[in-house]
Every structure is written in structure tokens, then in C-alpha cells.
Design goal:
The structure is a single chain. The chain has a single domain, classed as 3-Layer(aba) Sandwich (Rossmann fold), CATH 3.40.50.2020. The protein has a six-stranded mixed beta sheet with strand order 4-3-7-8-9-10, sandwiched between helices. It has a two-stranded antiparallel sheet with strand order 1-2. By secondary structure, the chain is an alpha/beta fold. The chain contains five helices and ten strands; from the N terminus they run αββαβαββββαβαββ. Helix 3 links the parallel strand 3 and strand 4. The structure holds guanosine-5'-monophosphate. The site of guanosine-5'-monophosphate has 20 residues, from strand 2, strand 7 and helix 4.
Length: 218
């Protein structure tokens, strides 16, 4: 598509950004389940069943938000980061690497590892990538489904740094802004872009940072 002037392009991108966020928020409100004051279940469209139309919109959105950053690779963590990361890789035209949580007999070449404490499973996981796929020349965009206390993102940053590559930024589908992961990462100077930011999950209610709508789950 050709744009006759910059403002048309701006209008297109701003409404398109708004639409993606509205689509994501409406999915969270209609299909998300508040399990506890600090856990949101989104198995209906992201963590178990996957909504391809939403993933496509998310991919476009991240590609536009990180368009100014040099990005040669995307790094995520299995398994729920893979769908949004692949769509973003498609729109940015870069390969996607996912860190493994399970030991694999085939993942042996130049293994880079980091320890990550899992917020949802409450156990320490070793995550690993092969240095074959991330090298010193790479500029890596880190993507994940949720941001809580930042352990997964910090583990992925550790892997990028062990590879001698540069972190271009961090993209998160759902940030729980009442936990301190976002602050930790932004304080370290990383560009963090979250598509939906949740202020609170108290009283079975999803309260977004920029507006408030309610969902009550049985
Ligand atoms: P963090 O490492 O930032 O503490 O937590 C982020 C990771 O834990 C994500 O990769 C995600 O898998 C998981 N996670 C954290 N909070 C939630 C949540 O409320 N719901 C779901 N489904 N996953 C979460």
C-alpha cells in the first residue's frame, strides 16, 4: 500500500495499534479467567488454544513498535511465546529462536544456559539455546506471552549476553504491571513494549492500566 503523506500513514498505524490492543483486551475480558489475585488464565487464545487472527495482529503490532530498532533475530521461550514470536518474525522478516526448558538430546552444540524461576510453576528451570543461532553480530528482540516478576525475560537477556549479542528490546503480550518485572527491565534501560498492561486482578476483576472494565469469572 502507498501513502500519499506521513499523516495518513500515522493515522493508519495509530488506529491499527489501537485495534490490536482493543482486540487483545476484549479477548482477555471475554475469554480470560482470573484464577487468583495474581494469575490470569488465557488458555482459550494464547496458552493452550491459539487464536491465529489475534496472533497475526500481535505480530504486526510488535513489528511496528520495534520498526526503529535494529533486529536480526527474535528470541522467545517455549511454549507460549512461540506463536506471537513467529508472527512477529514473519512481519519483521527475521528468524525466531525459542529457548528450551526441557533437556534435549539434539540440543548439544555450544549450549548456553540460564536459570529461570517459574512464577506459575514455582520451580527453577534451566533454559537453553544453542549458540549456533545467536552470534555476536545479532540484535535480538526478546518476546514473551506474560511479564510478571521478569525472571523469564532476565534469563533470555542473560542468554543473549552470553552469546555476545545485543538486546534490541523486549515485547510482552500481557504485562501484569502490579508485579515488578516491567520496572526492573525498564530500570536497566531496556525498551519494553507491552500490548496489554494490567493494573490489578483483585476481586476476579481485570483492571487495565489505561482504563477499567470488569470481568467476573465463576
Ligand atoms: P516472570 O518470569 O516475568 O515472573 O513470569 C513470566 C512467565 O511466567 C511467562 O513466561 C508466563 O509463562 C508465566 N506467567 C506469569 N504470570 C502469568 C499469568 O498470570 N498467567 C499465565 N498464563 N502465565 C503467567
Amino acid at each position: 500500500m502507498m501513502w500519499s503523506n506521513d499523516s495518513q500513514a500515522f493515522l493508519f498505524f495509530s488506529s491499527f495499534e489501537g485495534e490490536t490492543m482493543e482486540l487483545l483486551k476484549s479477548k482477555i475480558l471475554t475469554e480470560g479467567k482470573v484464577l487468583k489475585d495474581d494469575i490470569l488464565k488465557v488458555d482459550a487464545f494464547l496458552n493452550h488454544q491459539i487464536d491465529p487472527v489475534l496472533m497475526d495482529a500481535i505480530g504486526k503490532e510488535f513489528a511496528s513498535r520495534f520498526a526503529e530498532q535494529p533486529v536480526t533475530k527474535i528470541l522467545t521461550i517455549e511454549s507460549s511465546g512461540i506463536a506471537p514470536a513467529v508472527m512477529t518474525g514473519l512481519y519483521m522478516n527475521v528468524p525466531v529462536v525459542f529457548a528450551r526448558k526441557q533437556k534435549s538430546l539434539t540440543l548439544t552444540d555450544g549450549l548456553l544456559t540460564a536459570q529461570v524461576y517459574s512464577f506459575t510453576k514455582q520451580v527453577n528451570n534451566q533454559i537453553a539455546i544453542s549458540s549456533t543461532f545467536i552470534s555476536e553480530q545479532d540484535h535480538v528482540l526478546i518476546l514473551d506471552d506474560f511479564l510478571a516478576n521478569g525472571q523469564a525475560a532476565l534469563g533470555l537477556i542473560d542468554l543473549v549476553q552470553q552469546a555476545g549479542a545485543t538486546v534490541s528490546g523486549i515485547g510482552i503480550v500481557i504485562e501484569k504491571a502490579f508485579q515488578d518485572g516491567g520496572e526492573k527491565l525498564r530500570d536497566k534501560g531496556f525498551k519494553v513494549e507491552s500490548l496489554a498492561r494490567i493494573k490489578s486482578l483483585k476481586n476476579k476483576t481485570v483492571d487495565f492500566l489505561d482504563d477499567t472494565r470488569e470481568v467476573i469469572n465463576e
